[in-house]
Structures are given as C-alpha cells and as structure tokens.
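Example record

Each entry pairs one chain with its bound ligand, 2-acetamido-2-deoxy-beta-D-glucopyranose.
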Amino acid sequence: MLRLGLAVGLLLAAAAASPHAEYIEQLMKSSELGGRYSNDIYEDARLDVPELVRKYNYPLEEHFVTTEDGYILGMHRIPHGRDANNRPDPNKSIVFVMHGLFSSSADFVLMGPGTALGYILAEQGYDVWMGNARGNYYSRRHTRFNPDAILNTRFWEFSWDEIGNIDLPAMIDYALEYTGKKRLHYIGHSQGTTVFFVMGSLRPDYNEKIISMHAMGPVAYMAHNRHIIFNALAPYSTDLSRLANLVGIGEFLPNNNLMTWAGQTLCRDEVVFQAVCSNVMFVMGGWNREQHNTTMLPVKLGHTPAGASVRQLAHYGQGIDGKRFRRFDYGTIRNLRVYGRRNPPAYDLSKVTAPVFLHYSENDPFAHINDVTRLFRELGAPIGKFRVTNRRFSHIDFMWGIDAKTLVYNRIMNLIQAMDIHG
Ligand SMILES: *[C@@H]1O[C@H](CO)[C@@H](O)[C@H](O)[C@H]1NC(C)=O
Ligand SMILES: *[C@@H]1O[C@H](CO)[C@@H](O)[C@H](O)[C@H]1NC(C)=O
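Structure tokens for the complex follow.
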C-alpha cells in the first residue's frame, strides 16, 4: 500500500505541476535569470526544435499530418546538411527517426551539430525526418478533442499501441508521399523502438516500406527491467491508469516551464544543486555519469519531458508486471469488447519482417540483455545484434551520450549505407 501511495503521489505531483506553469513563468521573469546568464545554453533550452535547428543554420521544414483518428502530428525534417552535402539530393535515402517516452524530436538535435544524431545524419547527406508521437509538445492537437480539457481525458486515451498502430504509418506514408520515395530507413530510441515493433506486427504491410530498422535501447519485453521506480509502480499500472482516468488526469509529465526553470536555475554549471539535479536524472532516466555532459543539463531539461499519456506509462508497467509484450490491458470487461477475449493479445513479433538491427548495452536498465535476446529470437527477420563496447553506456546515452557517435551512430550509418547498396 505504501508503494501505491507513493505512486499516486507521483502521479498527482506530475499533474499538479501543470497548473503552476503560469506561476513559474512569473518566477522566471522576476528572477535574476532574466538575461544575466543568457548564453547559448539557456537560449537552446527555450527554443523549440524549428528555432533551434535554424539557429545553427540547418534547413528545417515543419510538416503536419492528421491521423485517421484526428490527432495532428508535427514532423520535423532536415532535408540535407549544412557543411557537407549542403544541397538537396533526390537520390539520398530518407532516415526516419523516432524518439522515446516523455521525449520529442528535440532528442535528436538538442546536443548540437556534430554530436546530435539529426545533424550527423544530415551531414552524411540523408534526408532526415523526425517524428513526434501524439500527445507530445509538437503533436498536442486534435481535430475534436482538447488536450487541456478539465476532467475530460478523451484526448489522452491512448498508449504506445496507438502510436505504433496509427501514428507511425501516418507519418511514414506522409514522408514517402512527399518525397516520392518507396522505402526508408528507420532509427528508433526506446519507445521509438517499441512503436516500430507494434507497427510491424499489427500493420505487417508496412515492413515492406522499411529498408532497415535500427533499434537503440530496444524495448519490447521488460521482464528483466531493472529500473527501481518503474518496477515499484508496475504492479499497480492498470489500477493507476484507471484511477487517473477517474480523477480526470490523462497527461503525465507535460512539458512546462517548471523544468526549464529548474534546469536553468538549479542545474546549470557552478551551482551546487547541479549534482543533485544530475543524480535525480540518473535515477529517473537510466543515465551514466561518464556519458553525461553536465553543462548541457539545462538544455536537456528545457526539452524533456515533452509530455505523454498516463496510459503509455501504464502499458509499460503491464509489460514489466506481466512479463509479456501485449496490447493494452483494459481489464476483462473492456478487453472482451475491444479484443473479443479476456486478456489482451500478444504482439506477434514474427510478423515484423523488416530487416532489424538491435543496438543495446549491458548497463541499460530498460533493455536488459535477456529481454533483448528474446526479442531478437522472436523477430521475423532480425539481422544483427550489437552490444555497445563501453560497459557503462546506458539507456539515455544512446541519445545524449558524449560518445554516442563513436560508439553507436557510426555503426548505424555504416549499416544504413550497406543496406542502401544491398537492400
Ligand atoms: C541521381 O541518380 C541518377 C541515376 O543514377 C543520376 O542520373 C543523377 O545524376 C543523380 N542525381 C544526383 C543529384 O546525384
Ligand atoms: C559539453 O557541452 C559543452 C557545451 O555545449 C561543450 O562546449 C563541451 O565540449 C561538451 N563536453 C564534452 C565532453 O563533449
């Protein structure tokens, strides 16, 4: 019961953070931050993705696609590089990148040119499309439902099942249609890999549109999850999600000025609190000290969390608790209505016939080696499985790690190049 109490507390705290956004904004304005510390880091924490990318003189296009169930998703495209390959080249492949839980397309640019994956791919001449899942900062719109409706969670009634089943196909089709291409490469991180496996199993015709898929920190099975907070909450996930629904909370950890303010005030260089900030992030996110550039913490916090539904979290909790990779468990009565059976069906991974490469690490609390091995075994056409050579490399390091390029991205780009020639 103590753990359930803790869980409810966390949930309410997260929800309560949102209405205070205005107050925090006041605080930010009145605090000495107002300009005294404004350098690149603080500016980068406040700019949105299009502003940030353009600031560094890269081309950036915004695209919007409306899903069949009414969500308006924002996509960000870097069509070519700035230094090398600085012209559009219709012969170059598309690389579609998809962010993780609580994140957004910002993941792939916030570390800046030379370090962030989005820029690195663009410099290699790829046409980079960055997706945004329904509910995050860039995809927080719907043709009918209001994400901010009080005591009405209709907008938020989705998990990553819908993101994989509906959002990914919509965004992939849009990018292919817009460019006249037939197929693309896909790189996902964390939930960005989960949703791919969902798509591949529920919409198998999409496998043919994938030249190669690269899963960084792959998450499907979570039976061996080692994350203390996720493990503590997992047994209550279905109850919690129902409870949240009852009290009208659909969104979990929205992007708000609180985190930006905390990042800039408490977590910047030369502030004693920075160590505390970093520690909180290590525990929450599965970080690793060596790979974490503390100077960049305000930028990371300025863009994360970007918003997600309570149900996305609950769906992962069900996977940890039930040790299976299944569709969302609504409880018996609604399961019968939605799936025609008492328990949710498992995702059939053998239907994921796109060529998949898994990139994983020993120290990743969310993608344990045993779970990754099981995933690899059950996928329809797995090609390669690569363990990061640095043993301490962790989950978040795939996006923000100081050595992500040398340890992970270079290999992915070699594989992409090889698949372009042979695929
Ligand atoms: C693209 O490929 C075609 C056919 O191989 C070639 O004729 C054309 O010059 C290429 N375009 C660019 C911009 O490289
Ligand atoms: C950390 O980030 C700062 C600011 O972008 C940069 O100047 C520095 O080189 C980075 N450090 C490492 C080790 O990458």
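The mean pLDDT is 84.
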